[in-house]
Design brief:
Blueprint: H1 4-17, E1 21-25, H2 34-44, E2 50-54, E3 60-61, E4 64-65, E5 79-82, H3 86-99, E6 103-106, H4 116-132, E7 135-137, E8 143-146, E9 153-156, E10 164-171, H5 174-187, E11 191-196, H6 205-213, E12 220-225, H7 231-241, E13 247-251, H8 265-269, H9 272-282, E14 286-288, H10 291-303, E15 312-316, H11 319-331, H12 341-348, E16 361-362, H13 369-380, E17 387-393, H14 400-416, E18 423-428, E19 438-439, E20 442-443, E21 446-447, H15 452-471, H16 487-501, E22 504-505, H17 508-517, E23 525-527, H18 530-540, E24 544-549, E25 562-566, H19 569-585, E26 594-599, E27 605-614, E28 618-625, H20 629-633, E29 636-640, H21 645-653, H22 672-688, E30 692-702, E31 709-711, E32 714-718
Parallel strand pairs: 1-2, 1-5, 5-6, 6-7, 10-11, 10-12, 12-13, 13-14, 15-16, 15-17, 17-18, 18-21
Antiparallel strand pairs: 3-4, 8-9, 8-11, 19-20, 22-32, 23-26, 24-25, 24-26, 27-28, 27-30, 28-29, 30-31, 30-32
């Protein structure tokens, strides 16, 4: 749990959320100005402490005594909300320091987001607050809310107050955050606190995570992120806090920005967004793809009821809506099981003869309130289901009241009978879309499209599975604990290559030695002339493969520099001759280091293991179907170093091609444990050696159980860490 440094951080943020005296610097009589709006919001929100307007040209504003400066205020100040323009902000910070103000919200814009001049002001602002020990939210932010009824702080410039609840929100965008605040009442989302981070000169999302960890009002954390400051700290915090409080993130920037342009497959695949996915997956953060999903997940997780399994019941008044829900359930990995005969018989006893009595259950459009109530209760009390989706279409707007009343009655009756199954409503009632459903204090998650209930159920189940794993550390192994890792030797190889030649790809001999140092040897023997190649082939045993050894040329097969199934010495000699002639034809004779002579390997599955170094997230590790398939299918999973055995197991099992490793269509099962071992070793290698910029084992052939893995081709790029 949190230690003394965390306690200090939490204490430094407390004045933002529980101030007694709030000064508004730039408070104004001019209606429509930011200063006037913030002042109005503090008053109309019901803040119970003192509101202290600061304006050098006013004695009073809207009946409140105004002060010419912060120093003119006789009492101490817990929080200052600064609404003046950027060019005046630095002098105001000096006043805050002189007055001993511990916390500042700087709403004003005109900083780094506006260009070079604003960036200089922002840097000076950062320096000042660090020197003075002032905590600051912003600048260029929307403000902060604490909706706790004992505080009721609205230090923003929107008068719209959401209902109080258990969800706390941090947003890098003031506009997106404001949208959630204003939509909360419509979607029935209860909010505890809201923070607009703006340019996060000081307070950032990691600080807020630590604060919300100890905040009893916060049970669910909602994040809109455009960047992740200090991903390593975020990873530690999110993994710890997420075990008890779900973290739901909408991360902007799902583009190929930051994609490496070097020659490895991994670098081409490992975009910044995939690194974000890997980070979130590791630490249990639930990632939303859209604003609608983000809000939907917040509503579902704040409900606190979790399905015990994947069996979903569907109750509808429209067959089509039921089919759409069933399709969504299958897409999300849920089951829509047939109902036991006893349940169908119970339904038949009170529903119309036209009703569909299996799963989905269609009560038909003319169902009465009593029929809706009885059907809802029956399905919620059935042991054959883990969750219930109710999909209602508006056949006649006048019928919505009785349908809604029946649904509420049915849920209440089932709860009184002991059922704790979660209910998810898909209320597709035009003209009545914003209806809220609550049963004895239980808010029922309500959505408007048939795909959302299944999606949130799937995410609830995934979160619970991650949470159970994260709470069970048995068998957790870091790559650092693996035997037979000669990291000093591996470091020396990379350092010498970098010193001798500068940044670039290691030679084949260097790659062989490097991989052998971590017990993942490259298959075969390096030969520099025909007779050495023949001796290698005879030692290995025919048939063999002969391929170009060159750190300058990546796609050897396309160049005609790979010769397979060679059965005698003459074929080996001819292979060298052919490869040399091909290099001469393309003007790259100097690129040849020799050839790699390898045994022909059959009966395995080709995969790729790779690593690249993201400038923000550090080493990103990849595993996927290898050879040509990696480019064609893109079946790749990513993780962030350091990996544990749990990480590598998840990555491998999440591959679409995973069945190929388990004995697909009568083929033998492959040595998955050996593959996991190599993944852990590569994670340890790139984590320990910052000089490694990229690494590709492609293909690595996974052999049948007990026979291990074979690295057939490998490339390693070394470069100074500053060049990553």
């Amino acid at each position: 749990m949190a230690g003394s440094s965390s306690d200090h951080l939490v204490g430094s943020l407390t004045p933002f959320f529980s101030p007694r005296r709030v000064a508004v610097v730039g408070a104004s009589r001019e209606k429509g100005s930011i200063g006037a709006r913030v002042l109005d919001c503090l008053r109309s929100g019901g803040f119970g402490g003192l509101i202290l307007p600061v304006n050098p040209r006013a004695d009073s504003i809207d009946g409140l005594r105004a002060f010419s400066s912060l120093s003119a205020i006789p009492d101490s100040i817990d929080l200052a909300v600064i609404t003046v323009p950027a060019h005046l902000s630095l002098s105001i910070i000096d006043e805050c320091a002189a007055k001993g103000v511990p916390a500042v919200i700087m709403i004003a814009a005109g900083f780094a987001e506006t260009g070079e001049r604003g960036a200089r002001i922002e840097q000076e602002l950062r320096t000042k607050i660090q020197q003075q020990g002032i905590r600051l939210i912003g600048p260029n932010c929307f403000g902060l809310m604490n909706l706790d009824p004992t505080v009721r702080l609205n230090a923003t410039y929107t008068p719209v107050l959401p209902p109080f609840g258990s969800v706390s929100i941090a947003s890098d965008s003031g506009g997106v955050g404001a949208m959630v605040v204003m939509a909360a009442r419509r979607v029935n989302l209860g909010i505890s606190t809201y923070v607009s981070l703006g340019n996060h000169v000081d307070v950032n999302v990691n600080d807020l995570l630590e604060y919300w960890e100890q905040d009893s009002n916060t049970q669910v954390i909602l994040l809109y992120l455009e960047t992740i400051p200090d991903p390593h700290r975020f990873r530690r915090l999110a993994e710890r806090i997420g075990r008890h409080k779900p973290i739901i993130a909408l991360k902007a920037g799902r583009t190929t920005a930051g994609q490496a342009a070097a020659g490895s497959h991994t670098a081409a695949l490992a975009t910044n967004d995939r690194a974000v996915d890997a980070l979130f997956t590791h630490c249990g953060v639930i990632r939303a793809s859209t604003l609608e999903e983000w809000l939907a997940l917040a509503v579902a997780f704040s409900n606190r009821r979790r399905p015990a399994g994947r069996r979903a019941g569907i109750l509808t008044n429209s067959g089509g809506a039921g089919v759409l829900c069933a399709d969504s359930c299958e897409k999300e990995g849920l089951f829509v099981p047939p109902l036991p005969p006893s349940v169908s018989a119970t339904l038949a006893s009170f529903l119309s003869p036209l009703a569909a009595l299996n799963n989905p259950v269609d009560v038909i459009g003319l169902a009465t309130e009593d029929q809706h109530a009885a059907a809802t209760e029956t399905l919620l009390r059935s042991d054959a289901l883990d969750a219930l989706i109710i999909a209602h279409l508006s056949i006649n707007v006048a019928d919505n009241d009785q349908a809604a009343a029946g649904i509420i009655r049915g849920i209440r009756a089932a709860r009184l009978a002991g059922s704790r199954k979660p209910v998810f409503l898909c209320w597709m009632a035009e003209g009545d879309r914003d209806r809220h459903f609550s049963v004895d204090g239980e808010a029922i998650p309500t959505y408007h499209t048939p795909d959302i209930p299944a999606l949130v159920i799937g995410q609830l189940l995934s979160y619970e599975a991650w949470r159970e794993q994260s709470l069970d550390d048995v068998g957790l192994q870091s790559a650092r604990k693996l035997p037979d890792l000669n990291l000093p030797q591996a470091k020396a190889i990379c350092a010498k290559a970098l010193l001798d030649r500068g940044p670039g790809w290691l030679t084949t001999k260097e790659v062989q030695t490097l991989l052998a140092a971590v017990n993942a040897p490259l298959l075969g023997r390096l030969a520099t002339d025909p007779e050495e190649a023949v001796r290698a082939a005879e030692t290995i045993g025919y048939p063999v493969a002969v391929k170009l050894a060159s750190h300058h040329i990546l796609h050897k097969t396309e160049l005609g520099a790979v010769c397979l199934n060679l059965t005698d010495a003459q074929a080996v000699r001819q292979a060298l001759k052919t490869i040399k002639e091909r290099l001469v034809q393309i003007g790259k004779a100097d690129a040849m280091e020799g050839v790699l002579v390898q045994p022909m390997v059959s009966g395995g599955v080709e995969l790729l293991i790779g690593a690249t170094r993201d400038p923000h997230f550090g080493p990103v590790i990849a595993v996927g179907l290898g050879g040509i398939h990696v480019e064609l299918l893109g079946d790749v999973q990513f993780g962030l170093a350091p990996l544990t055995n749990r990480d590598v197991s998840r990555m491998i099992r999440n591959l679409k091609g995973y069945p190929l490793l388990t004995g697909y269509r009568g083929r033998p099962a492959m040595d998955v444990r050996a593959l996991e071992d190599v993944l852990l070793r590569m994670s340890c290698l790139v984590e320990a050696i910052p000089d490694i910029g990229e690494l590709d084992l492609n293909p690595i052939i996974v052999l049948p159980e007990g026979q291990g893995c074979t690295v057939v081709d490998a490339r390693v790029l070394v470069q100074a860490p500053s060049e990553h």
